[in-house]
Design a protein that fits this description.
Distance between the termini: 21 Å
Length: 82
């Protein structure tokens, strides 16, 4: 399994834990805040040929960073305490 699969199943197993629920709620808020900036991704035909300004837009990068911290148990523990 990769880090994101591990994170997914860990969050599923802890679905009643307030800390995990808060992390999912924060993900929802970040998604809403970055929805407009991330819309540009829809225009990508071929990911490898796409302009870097499109594939590395601020909305996508913000979401990617948050999910990376959530998937990294050591960082999550350090910054979020669980």
């Amino acid at each position: 399994m990769n880090a994101y699969q591990n994170m997914f199943y860990e969050f599923l197993q802890n679905g009643t834990d307030r800390r995990y629920l808060a992390a999912v709620r924060l993900l929802e808020e970040l998604m809403e805040e970055n929805r407009e900036a991330g819309k540009i991704i829809r225009r990508v035909g071929s990911w490898h040929l796409a302009n870097r300004n499109v594939t590395h837009n601020s909305g996508r990068i913000t979401m990617k960073r948050y999910l990376s911290v959530m998937a990294n148990q050591a960082l999550r523990k350090k910054y979020f305490g669980f």
